[in-house]
Design brief:
Length: about 140
C-alpha cells in the first residue's frame, strides 16, 4: 500500500512540475514579446484607438519605418493588433488593438503610474538628455 501511495504522490509531483514548466514557458513567451523594442510604445499609443502607420511613426520619434513595420507585424502575428488596408489613393493602412491587445490597457496604465511614481527622477541617458530636458520644461 505504501509503495502505491508513493507512486501516486510521485505522479502528482511530476504533473505539477509539468504544469509549472508550461506556466514558465507561457510567461517566457509573453516577456519575450513585450521586451521587443518598441512593442510597449506601440501598444501604449494604440490604446487611444486606431492609428495609421505614419501617425504611429510620428508618435515615436526615433523609430525607423522598418522597425515600426516589424513591430506591427509581430503584434499582428501575436493577435494583439489588427491591420486594415483602406482602398484609397494613396492606400492607407490603419492598426487597432484586438480584444487581447485592449486587455493590456490596465497593465500599461499601471506601468505608467509606476514610472511616474518611482522613475520620474531617473536621469536620462546621455543620448536622450536634451530630449528629456525639453520634455520636462
Amino acid at each position: 500500500m505504501e509503495v502505491m501511495e508513493k507512486s501516486i504522490a510521485k505522479e502528482r509531483v511530476e504533473r505539477r512540475r509539468a504544469q509549472l514548466e508550461e506556466i514558465k514557458c507561457q510567461y517566457g513567451r509573453a516577456f519575450a514579446l513585450l521586451q521587443e523594442k518598441w512593442v510597449l510604445f506601440t501598444l501604449h499609443y494604440l490604446t487611444e484607438g486606431a492609428m495609421g502607420f505614419n501617425e504611429l511613426s510620428r508618435c515615436g520619434k526615433g523609430i525607423n519605418p522598418t522597425t515600426l513595420s516589424q513591430t506591427l507585424s509581430l503584434l499582428e502575428a501575436a493577435g494583439l493588433v489588427t491591420r486594415e488596408v483602406h482602398s484609397t489613393i494613396p492606400p492607407k493602412t490603419s492598426y487597432e488593438l484586438t480584444e487581447a491587445g485592449r486587455a493590456l490597457k490596465p497593465i500599461l496604465e499601471a506601468v505608467g503610474e509606476w514610472i511616474a511614481r518611482y522613475l520620474s527622477n531617473l536621469p536620462c541617458s546621455v543620448k536622450d538628455e536634451i530630449k528629456c530636458r525639453a520634455i520636462k520644461s
